[in-house]
Amino acid sequence: MEQWAAPGPGVDGAPHGAGADPRRRIPRTDAVLRDPRLLNAAHRLGPGPVKSAVHRAQQRAREGAVPPDAVADTAVALLPPSASGLRPVINATGVVLHTNLGRAPLSAAARRAVQDAAGPTDVELDLRTGVRARRGRTALAALRAAVPAAAAAHLVNNGAAALVLAATALAAGREIVIGRGELVEIGDGFRLPDLLVSTGARLREVGTTNRTTAADYADAIGPATAFVLKVHPSNFRITGFTHAPGVGDLTALGVPVVVDIGSGLLAPHPLLPDEPDARTQLTAGAALVTASGDKLLGGPQCGLLLGREDLIGTLSRHPLARALRVDKLTLAALEATLTGPATPTGEALDADPAHLRHRAERLAARLAADGIDVRAVASSATVGGGGAPGVTLAGAALSLPERYAAALRTGSVPVVGRLEAGRCLLDLRAVPAADDERLAGAVRSAGAVRSAGER
Ligand SMILES: *Cc1c(COP(=O)(O)O)cnc(C)c1O
């Protein structure tokens, strides 16, 4: 490595001539920050950690530990390690399952299970016999134990994949009978009817947007019918003059009834009376239930297929099942979610409004003592696109000036709040109480960024 002229003693013990004084040549922060590697890191990590690395690199140069022209290299080396561009954030939006923030956060048990499964693992090997074993057998056993009403279960990559597999394996070249009020767009422009038709199945639409009867379904059943599909309108509600038959009204039609419940509730949830669950649908006679793993179930992204043994067998042996199979990390996280204590999603749903208010008041009092314009306010959270449209969950938020929103998002601990009536609200419903200290720190940093900018 090139040795540079440290501010070592000259003949007289003084540093080299004034021109060699490294302090004079240390590049300014804004110049160093133009380095493409640091620009990229600022994008990934936010400006805070990158500036702090640059300041430490400049300090080293001032101390003579590195040459001034190595400040950028040194700052790059000092960046906090982060192997991926995905940054952990605090979800203070008040949307419990926020698709843009990765939906359900994994429980501590699920995170440990992912960590343990990350290396070589016995995902397809029976260690006692040394013989190949069924992939995901323990996760599937946990799923069966959680939903005894399901005779069999299969796992795929997400809820959409569960529908694609069911339509491909059971209905390609045949008809799926579906009510007109259940032709759903799930988000980001993806529409379930398009997805189903892409498998080679034909849709036979029955009824009207607001009203569909069991007789409408019965009239449409014929030799080409593969199954009746019921889709839960999980992100919208039609109210007023409406009717749709339940699963129990359709089982007498003589064709399998497949129910896409969407959210992955395995059993009824008292706070969400209108949200369908796997147990109730299977008990009512559904042949197959499909659902997502990362919505109300509170687990990793995956798709659940639960139901009749013959149908699950057909699905799991179809070539497409191989293309949609889940990886070992998902299997580990799902099993830990199913067998572990309450998930962060469950805890957020069940959080007591009085407790949320107490947390908000405590945080607001401490931050106000630091001179921050903050107060605790009542706030309504929602479950999110993952389910229970129309349900509001009373709780509490920190209310800050609107300009905090951007500073909080771009801080070293990014916090995503929501804007409401000209204020930045940090809703505590989906923030675990254990994160209150980090949240307070982030608000303080955002306040400091702002005052520094105003100076
Ligand atoms: C969310 C949802 C899907 C899609 O599930 P992903 O896991 O996002 O693929 C399908 N159907 C319904 C009713 C849903 O709510």
UniProtKB/TrEMBL annotation:
* Keyword Cytoplasm appears in the UniProt entry: yes
What cellular-component terms does GO give this entry?
Answer: cytoplasm
Q: What is its EC number?
A: 2.9.1.1
Q: Which cofactor does it need?
A: pyridoxal 5'-phosphate
| Known pathway | Aminoacyl-tRNA biosynthesis; selenocysteinyl-tRNA(Sec) biosynthesis; selenocysteinyl-tRNA(Sec) from L-seryl-tRNA(Sec) (bacterial route): step 1/1
Query: Where are the stretches annotated Disordered?
Result: 1-30
Q: What's the catalysed reaction?
A: L-seryl-tRNA(Sec) + selenophosphate + H(+) = L-selenocysteinyl-tRNA(Sec) + phosphate
In-chain residues carrying the UniProt-annotated modification N6-(pyridoxal phosphate)lysine: K295
Mind telling me which InterPro entries this protein's record contains? PyrdxlP-dep_Trfase (IPR015424), PyrdxlP-dep_Trfase_major (IPR015421), SelA-like (IPR018319), SelA_trans (IPR004534), SelA_trans_N_dom (IPR025862)
Q: What is its main location?
A: cytoplasm
A Pfam family of this chain: Se-cys_synth_N
List the biased-composition ranges (Basic and acidic residues).
21-30
Is Nuclease one of the keywords? no
Coiled-coil positions: none
Q: Name one GO molecular function term.
A: L-seryl-tRNA(Sec) selenium transferase activity
Q: Which UniProt keywords apply?
A: Cytoplasm, Protein biosynthesis, Pyridoxal phosphate, Selenium, Transferase
An example Gene Ontology biological process: conversion of seryl-tRNAsec to selenocys-tRNAsec
Q: Where in the cell is it found?
A: Cytoplasm
Q: Which residues cross the membrane?
A: none
Q: Where do the L-seryl-tRNA selenium transferase N-terminal domain residues begin and end? A: 23-62
State the function annotated in the UniProt record: Converts seryl-tRNA(Sec) to selenocysteinyl-tRNA(Sec) required for selenoprotein biosynthesis.
Record-stated family: Belongs to the SelA family.
What's this protein's name? L-seryl-tRNA(Sec) selenium transferase
Name the source organism: Streptomyces capillispiralis
